[in-house]
Design goal:
The protein is an alpha+beta fold. Helix content is 31%, strand content 24%.
């Protein structure tokens, strides 16, 4: 005997004919193997329609071909109807694109052939993962949005993933760190190291891919990091998530080990011998892979012969070799804050190919005869042998350029003079001069950021850049002109940069005009001149950086292609990459193509295959740039972890629909302020150049005051709060802004850092003891030790309220939220009041204290002696509706949680006796609550009487506000449930709600 469920006899709705038909179709289509009659459908849908009306609808659906008769008066889904539905998609098209996965498991396919991205549900991804290249079948779904399914995976972005090992008795799983990868990786125990522990960080390599979303990919653990986290693992995680392998395959290392490092005379004899000519390199102090060198020789006719010598990587990395295949997969070296992941093994990148001083090296050179005006008289390209006489750091070269003293000072000054002339010619022809200082971190031996400094480019940097640009431009021009010269098309890898988006340009010029920079631009040809003039006028002014930043955003992205359209930003009709083959595979290809032409061997690369390779190189370049940015974000968040709660001055650097980005002046760290964390009701304009509130407008580049709410290095996030500038208490302390080190200081710092790193391996320096020789550039004010002596005019009497805390602790120990916090490894406890309870006050009643995953909160022992002082729009609200009133804060539940939804029914029941005791002690005059679920919870527990509700409407938007009486014991207190002042509702709508409830 089975018991009837309570309420099972309750009749449902009587559905109209069209809705009944839809419900029946939904039922059959979702249960295509089931059979139903009219009576069964009534029970299944819980409707009150008569059996005859349901039968009539069934007969009509049979006529329409949606369902068909089965046996014994029942009906079933017509499979032909399902086929017919598929037939509507027979016109589906196919395209190739990249998977952009979402955290829900679904994905969008980004295709160059389509303006819109193609939505693919999770169950139609066919095992494709984030970043994979796939073939997809698609059609236009509802609302003219493309939707489809993956047909096949063409290329995996990565076969290695970093994650957390989850061990069981018979198998293991690796849970990937990447939040956009929604599938765990199955690992048989035979592929797990014997010493592995549950929860350890590992790298797993896929050995068997899943072909659908029902199965997991299978992998084996290839790198075991252990259970302790740290900077090293996080940096490696960034590289792996962006699709870069940390190690070289065995076959590559075997081939690398066999390379002959000796430069033989027989090979030099095949080349132009330039070993006797003065040659040197200029590179960063920490560099080890020296791609390029410069030589200079005074000719008898008074001209100069300038040699731009590039490491001849192609001599060692042959087409089709294992080294070549791996370089083609990587395509680039990746530069993170604290390390380099090389494209080539160290023996090549830092050894045989690197143009180290006092060593004979094989090079591929561009040699130019130039007059004193910087004009090119003759040019020559070919294989050479060189001998580098000196390795300069940028700092050492700059010192000689400025002082004219030291070895090779005359040669450096001559090169610098020619570089100035090349630069002037470039800008005269329309190149845009985008210049911005680079932010660098000083790290300790564990990779923890100690300081931030600016690295500004000076003559030594630009000298090298100008000659590299010259070589790249002339190689591109040579190869591009071959078709006209020989009648033969020579496919080449060009670095191209398209014209800017004119709509973006016009939006930017409107913004610039508001700042006093008027530009009349009607065509792409006018952009460069107008932008150049604007940047020159803004130079040295506060708005210069943001104008440059926004101008850059109007530009297209530079990419690699066999189709030469020129380089818009540099003002070059032709441009290639020739000068960095140690770290860029595009340059390796450029060397091969140029050498094939110079050798007259009639070899030409397949244009179509070369174009596909160009697309791959461009994609991997973007991955490398994203990895670099991720490492910077990690260090910024790590740097600010120790400064949570501090106030800073910053500059608005970005505006989105969710909030704004602010760059902190004192350390150049960037964080986000969500709109709900602002002191007033702000919203962005259409083009995201400014945010407005009823009281103030902020534009991009404006200075603001912020407070650091939190920093999570693992999520690469910094959360800030926008402070009200009218409140003097919000003013940040005066700090030194980020400085540029002098070149002498930089040189000292470089050498000291290298020495310190070596010493640290054997005997780490004591904590808090500054390393000798390093000039500290303090960019964040050191926090003062001890408690601040803050005076208050209110003599708090908190003892009666603090007497409730033991009962709060007992209730918390019985709560569900305590177990939830334990499961999340979070240290949340409780708080009864965040500020001093004030007698005869207006109480702001919160639902419960908020918590964050990455932050610990002790159980409250004492209540603050300082009264509640609202900030921003909340301050304005209380000043307007409760002028001169004392204010207090309290909670319905004292238990901390991420949000009110985490509190269970039991948690609320445990909280209510404490809430009643608090109210009876405080005896507030009135109560205000901004909490949406507050009114429902109080009503359910019979605390409210005389409750009135009002629907307030303004400009088509509606909000519900209410008021009533809170009954606690003998107390009867007016209570108001109104919109939060900082909410993103329309100001007029909130005001109407407040006016109705409070006046």
């Amino acid at each position: 005997m089975t018991k009837k469920k309570k309420g099972s006899n309750k009749k449902g709705k009587n559905l109209p004919v069209h809705l009944l038909e839809k419900k029946i179709i939904d039922l059959f289509s979702k249960q295509i193997t089931s059979r139903f009659d009219a009576k069964g459908i009534i029970g299944k849908l819980r409707i009150s329609n008569s059996k005859d009306s349901v039968q009539h609808t069934l007969d009509k659906l049979v006529e329409k071909g949606k369902i068909e008769k089965a046996s014994r008066g029942k009906y079933k889904w017509n499979k032909a109807a399902k086929t017919a539905k598929k037939d509507k998609r027979n016109n589906a098209q196919t395209t190739i694109g990249r998977v952009d996965a979402t955290r829900s498991g679904s994905a969008y396919i980004i295709s160059e052939d389509l303006e819109q991205d193609i939505f693919v549900p999770a169950h139609k991804l066919m095992g494709a993962l984030n970043g994979d290249t796939v073939e997809v079948s698609w059609y236009m779904a509802r609302k003219d949005k493309p939707e489809g399914q993956v047909i096949q995976v063409l290329e995996r972005k990565s076969e290695n993933f970093i994650g957390t090992l989850s061990l069981s008795d018979k198998f293991a799983f690796v849970i990937p760190d990447n939040p956009n990868m929604q599938t765990d990786i199955f690992v048989p125990l035979k592929y797990v190291p014997k010493e592995a522990e549950d929860g350890a960080k590992v790298v797993v390599t896929i050995v068997k891919w899943a072909t659908d979303n029902k199965n997991n990919p299978e992998g084996k653990v290839t790198t075991y990091f252990g259970t302790e986290g740290g900077n090293d693992i996080e940096m490696k995680s960034i590289l792996i998530q962006k699709g870069f392998n940390l190690t070289f395959p065995p076959e590559v290392l075997k081939e690398n080990a066999a390379i002959d490092t000796e430069v033989k005379q027989s090979e030099i004899d095949k080349r132009r011998d330039m070993r006797a000519i003065t040659t040197f390199t200029i590179d960063p102090a920490t560099a080890k892979d020296f791609d390029d060198a410069l030589s200079i020789e005074l000719l008898e006719n008074g001209n100069y012969e300038i040699g731009i010598h590039i490491a001849d990587v192609g001599h060692y990395v042959l087409p089709g070799s294992e080294l070549d295949k791996e370089a083609a997969r990587r395509t680039t070296s990746v530069y993170l804050v604290d390390r380099v992941l090389p494209m080539l093994p160290e023996k090549l990148s830092n050894g045989v190919c690197s143009l180290r001083p006092n060593e004979e090296k094989l090079t591929f050179s561009a040699v130019f005869e130039m007059n004193k005006q910087g004009s090119i008289i003759n040019e020559w390209f070919g294989k050479t042998a060189i001998y580098s006489d000196r390795r300069f750091t940028y700092e050492e070269a700059q010192e000689r350029i400025e002082s004219g003293e030291g070895d090779y000072a005359q040669e450096l000054q001559l090169l610098n003079g020619l570089a100035y002339k090349l630069r002037a010619q470039r800008f005269k022809k329309g190149a845009i001069n985008f210049e911005s200082p680079e932010v660098r971190f000083k790290l300790d031996e564990n990779g923890v950021p100690l300081e931030v400094y600016l690295k500004t480019r000076k003559d030594a940097h630009m000298l090298v850049e100008d000659f590299m640009l010259l070589a790249n431009r002339r190689v591109g021009a040579l190869m591009d002109g071959l078709h006209e010269k020989t009648g033969i098309q020579w496919p080449m890898v060009y670095r191209i940069h398209d014209e800017p988006d004119m709509e973006r340009v016009h939006n930017f010029t409107d913004f610039a005009a508001q700042m006093g920079y008027k530009m009349k631009i009607e065509s792409p040809e006018q952009v460069k001149k107008a932008f150049g003039k604007m940047l020159k006028e803004a130079e040295g002014k506060p708005e210069a950086d943001i104008l440059q930043q926004l101008a850059i955003r109007t530009m297209a992205k530079a990419v690699y292609s066999t189709n030469n359209i020129g380089h818009y930003g540099l003002g070059f009709a032709t441009y290639s990459h020739f000068t960095s083959p140690i770290r860029r595979y595009a340059d390796v290809l450029g060397h091969r193509i140029l050498f094939d032409y110079l050798s007259d061997n009639n070899k030409r690369m397949n244009a179509q295959k070369l174009e596909e390779l160009c697309k791959h190189i461009s994609k991997k370049e973007r991955d490398a740039m994203e990895a670099e940015r991720e490492s910077v974000k990690y260090k910024q968040a790590e740097f600010l972890e120790n400064h949570v709660g501090e106030k800073f001055e910053g500059t608005i650097s970005g505006i989105t629909d969710h909030g704004i980005y602010v760059s902190i002046k004192a350390n150049f760290c960037e964080g986000m302020i969500r709109y709900e964390k602002m002191f007033d009701d702000f919203s962005p304009d259409e083009h995201h150049f400014q945010i407005k509130s009823p009281s103030i407008t902020y534009r991009m580049g404006d200075n603001v005051w912020v407070s650091v709410l939190g920093a999570n290095k693992f999520k690469r996030q910094v959360d800030l709060e926008l402070l009200d500038p009218e409140d003097e208490a919000n003013r940040p302390p005066v700090r030194e802004e980020v400085k540029e080190l002098t070149f002498a200081e930089q040189e000292v710092a470089n050498k000291a850092q290298e020495v310190a790193s070596e010493v640290a391996k054997e005997a780490p320096a004591p904590k808090n003891e500054p390393k000798k020789g390093i000039k500290r550039v303090k960019v964040v004010q050191e926090p003062k030790k001890g408690r601040k002596n803050v005076q208050s005019t209110y003599n708090a009497k908190n003892e009666p309220f603090e007497a409730l805390l033991p009962d709060v602790q007992k209730a918390f120990n019985k709560s569900h939220i305590k177990n939830i916090a334990k499961q999340k490894n979070a240290k949340w406890r409780y708080e009864i009041a965040p500020s001093a309870p004030m007698p005869d006050s207006v109480l702001l009643l919160h639902f419960n204290p908020e918590a964050a995953l990455n932050k610990g909160y002790r159980g409250q022992k004492l209540i603050s002696k300082h009264p509640f002082k609202p900030q921003g729009s909340t301050k304005t609200f209380f000043k307007t509706y409760f002028p001169q009133e004392r204010l207090s804060e309290g909670y319905l539940s004292p238990f901390r949680s991420l949000d009110d939804k985490q509190l269970s029914k039991k948690d609320i029941e445990l909280s209510l006796p404490i809430f009643e005791a608090f109210i009876q002690l405080l005896k507030p005059k009135k109560i205000v609550s901004f909490s949406v679920p507050m009114v429902e919870t109080l009503q359910k527990n019979n605390y409210l009487s005389n409750l009135e509700e009002e629907e307030v409407t303004d400009q088509g938007r509606t909000v519900i506000t209410s008021r009533g009486i809170l009954n606690v014991g003998e107390l009867k207190i007016p209570i108001y449930f109104v919109p939060r002042p900082s909410s993103r509702l329309l100001k007029g709508l909130k005001t109407l709600a407040w006016e109705w409830a409070l006046t």
